[in-house]
Amino acid sequence: MGVSQRFKSKFRRFLQRPGSTVDLAPLEKLLPAIEAREAELTALDDAELTAAAGAAAGYEEICAVGREAARRGLDQRPYDVQLLGAMSLLSGKVAEMATGEGKTLTATVAAYGHVRLGNGPVHVLTINDYLARRDAQWMEPVYTLLGLTVGWVNEASTPQERRDAYACDVTYVSVSEAGFDYLRDQLVTDVEDRVQPALTTAIVDEADSIMIDEARVPMVLAGAVPGEQDPVHAAAALVRGLRKGKHYTVAEDGRSVAFTSAGLAAMEAKLGIDLYDEEHVAQLSAVNVALHAHALLHRDVDYIVRDGSVELVDEMRGRVAQRRRWPDGLQAAVEAKEGLDATAEGEVLGTIAMQAYIALYPKVCGMTATAVLVGDQLREFFDLEVAVIPPNTPCIREDEPDRIYATRAEKDEALIDEIQRWHAKGRPVLVGTLDVKESEGLAAGLNAAGVPCVVLNAKNDDEEAAIIAEAGAYGAVTVSTQMAGRGVDIRLGGSDQTDQERVAELGGLYVIGSGRHDSRRVDDQLRGRAGRQGDPGGSVFFVSLEDDLVVRHAADSVPASPRMNADGLVTDEQVDYAVEHAQRVAEGVNHEIHRNTWRYSVVIEQQRKALAARRERLLTSDVAAVMLLEKEPEKAGEMDEDLLARAARSIALYHLDRLWAEHLAELSEVREGVHLRALGRLDPLDEFHRAAVPAFNDLIPEIEARTIATFTETEFDEDWQPDDGTLVRPTATWTYLVHDNPFGSELDRLIASIGRRLSGASR
After folding, report:
1. Which of 113, 491, 547, 655 has the highest Cβ tally under 10 A?
2. pLDDT tens digits for 601-656?
3. pLDDT recorded at residue 486
């Protein structure tokens, strides 16, 4: 039955530092009672078990019935630690469970429990469509035995399929797809057109990734705008021939770029204007954005080009970020750089950040392999605590110290030698790289050395399940861009475990990181691929002093002449510290960006909620008709009651949606322009609030005024339809996610550029 209670308690006390995680002791006390119910439940037939599931109340009965349903439906008996995880989710915590410990089944027991406790329906929010479909289909036999219905939603689901899936007791859906459904529902003009019911409970898979890394990502619903043109697309052609050093310089951290005098002169000569003249601010902005795309965004690192379109790569997960685009014209600039037509950005009709969407659920819990490191942020942004669930079997993986080399070339050579050495013995090796370009370069080097390998990166992530499943096979070498959220276990000996003992004798799966990521959590998730469920395994990271992380965040901490051996391997403790320091700095930077972005989002989210409540009243009552009867009694009083209600509702909803879109556009401009106030020593956040609050206060009376004006100007008959007149909504809408702009906003770049220009003039 797994590890002893004594070990579990010791492990828990070791991990649960005071104030960092919750105490599991009260939940552990329930485990004997759960086990005591096992014999009785095993004796029931399926119908009797389903009846018992429908009557279960309380953690003990829920876990006991859930365990028996899993045993029958999947031939898997949940371990005690999985039930601890389920009870942690039921109590509204984020459960940290190591890779391979069975989070999917844990979530199933928890979802069933939430329904039984009256917290349904339950949405299991996943990182992508593949996991939503896989987990729903995989767990369906368990849900059926428990008397629950289960559905799933993906990007291709029709409105009716979405309605049917959300009508189930438990729905598996990617967080972005759920958010897009919410945004679309906020624009319906008939209650029957909605697909998503009232939000109740969310179980968030890969909670640290969704709730922290992706939290500030806005989900956007956009509509077509006729005659839309992007000046950045034209500017991109002008910078294509510029050369680094002569026409522009790139900062050491790789996050900013500036024209040299020669580059600026070349741009002005091509355009025939003075870029710093007030009337040419738009062109100045466009060429700056185009230069950033040209110099700082790299193909097969930041994005790939596939089927004639630019697809962004999620730097935290090493896969294509579906429906993601850069803001501030960067998307169009990259498309122009690659010789592609610009995709329409459209007019924003509705937007909500992932963090704000998740906060709409009255009950939220989650699970991930790496929660403790972001425990403070989960508490700060979601008021959630972390419960560290001990492993069922002690982890015996051997984690070696980093191997740090002076140069990238020395690191790459040593990396290939290490892989070649273990491959010759038959030990499976999994290499995690930082980006697509590096994965393909390493694969080429391995092939040249006579080491066959399989590559998994953003270009073929649709094959990931099959590739990962065989990564533990005898002699396998797998090169992958990051493993966070890949969602497939690696079994020793391959998917059929044919050579399990043979591979175990060699030391199990050997995980190698080709560099440190910006987040320790991503490194830990890569390590966690080895040593699952007590299997042997090992891990090591190869780092160079030329790696971007070290150069950006620890260049000043690296000694000028560190101690090293003849192969370039650094043996200086100060360098070890510098690498750790660089990672902590990178994490701190991302945390501060998250906090700062959320500060701006708070007021917008409050306004969105207030307007959503007003829209709900308009949609579900006759409040608009009552208002028109008061304001225009003569015309309104002559109309048929049903026609008045229908017309008033349609007109009011149209103007509310129209004005909200205009308000979002205005706030976007304010958000960009407010940074100019920093030049005047004013606080940008205060200035943003000073502009945003009055603008919203003017919104409500303006909705009413426009509604009255449209009503008085319109001729109504029995066949009147909203699109007969001026209430025409966009004929096409689409959804996308706004990718983090790593270089700041357009005006941030302009300010920096202007500052450099002024500094140069003063000298």
Report:
1. 113
2. 889 999 999 999 999 999 999 999 999 999 999 888 888 889 999 999 999 999 99
3. 54
Q: Tell me the angle at which helices 129-145 and 103-116 cross, rounded to the nearest 10 degrees.
A: 60
Per-residue pLDDT at 385 exceeds 80: yes
Which H or E run contains 26? Answer: helix 25-28
Instruction: Produce one character per residue of 716-733: b if its CB has 16 or more CB atoms within 10 Å, e if not.
Output: beeeeebeebebeebeeb
Tell me how far apart the alpha carbons of residues 198 and 598 are, in angstroms, rounded to a whole number. 24
Provide the phi-psi class of 539: left if phi over 0, else alpha when psi is between -120 and 50, else beta.
beta
Give CATH 3.40.50.300 domain extents, the chain: 5-223+354-388, 398-587
Listed in sequence order, the residues at least 6 apart from 449 whose beta carbon sits closer than 8 Å to its beta carbon are: 416, 420
Neighbour-count burial of 226, counting CB atoms closer than 10 A to its CB (0-12 exposed, 13-18 middle, 19+ buried): exposed
Q: Where in the chain is the domain with CATH 1.10.3060?
A: 621-730
Q: Mapping DSSP to helix (H, G, I), strand (E, B) and coil, where does residue 519 land?
A: coil
Q: Highest mean pLDDT: which of 142-151, 275-284, 644-653?
A: 142-151
Choose the weakest-confidence range: 80-94, 509-523, 559-573: 559-573
Asked if the 621-730 domain carries CATH number 2.40.10, the reply is: no
pTM over 0.85, yes/no: no
Contact of 389 with 229, CB cutoff 8 Å: no
Residues of the chain with CATH 3.90.1440.10: 231-343
Binding-site residues from annotation: 82, 100-104, 489
Where does 272-374 have alpha helices with state H? 281-296, 330-337, 354-358
Nearest to 670 by CA among 656, 696, 657, 689: 689
Question: Of 551 and 50, which is predicted with more confidence?
Answer: 50
Reported for 576-582, long-range contacts at CB under 8 A and 24+ positions apart, including other chains, are 576/401, 576/402, 576/404, 578/550, 578/554, 579/402, 579/404, 579/516, 579/543, 579/549, 579/550, 579/554, 581/553, 581/554, 581/557, 582/516, 582/549, 582/550, 582/552, 582/553, 582/554, 582/557
> What does the pLDDT read at residue 6?
46
Pairing of strands 477-481, 733-738: unpaired
Mean pLDDT value across the chain: 85
What SS3 state is found at 439?
helix
The Cα–Cα gap between 653 and 618 comes to 7
| CATH class of the region 398-587 | alpha beta
Distance CA 522, CA 592 (A): 19
Nearest C-alpha neighbor of 152 from the set 142, 357, 167, 144: 167
Distance of CA 375 to the CA centre of its chain: 17
Please give the torsion angle defined by the CA atoms of residues 555, 557, 561 and 565, in that order, rounded to the nearest 10 degrees: -90
Residues 329-346 pLDDT 10s: 777 888 888 888 777 666
Statement: 5-223+354-388 belongs to CATH 3.40.1130.10 = no
Alpha helix stretches (DSSP H) within 359-491: 375-382, 408-425, 436-448, 464-469
Report the C-alpha gap between 602 and 511 in whole angstroms.
Answer: 41
231-343: which CATH architecture? Alpha-Beta Complex (3.90)
Angle in degrees, 0-180, between the axes of helices 80-90 and 59-74, rounded to the nearest 10: 130
Q: Which residues are annotated as a binding site for ATP?
A: 82, 100-104, 489
Give the residue-averaged pLDDT of 510-531: 91
Contact call for residues 426 and 506 (beta carbons, < 8 A): yes
Residues sharing a CB contact under 8 Å with residue 84, sequence separation 6 or more, in sequence order: 24, 27, 28, 31, 387, 389
Q: Edge-to-edge strand order for the sheet containing 324-325?
A: 324-325, 733-738, 218-223, 347-353
Show the beta-strand stretches assigned E in 1-149: 94-96, 122-126
Structure tokens at 118: 């009256």
121 preceded by cis ω (within 30°)?
A: yes
pLDDT for 224 beyond 80: no
Q: Which of 150, 153, 21, 134 is nearest to 88 (CA)?
A: 21
Q: Is the dihedral of CA 39, 40, 44, 50 positive or negative?
A: negative
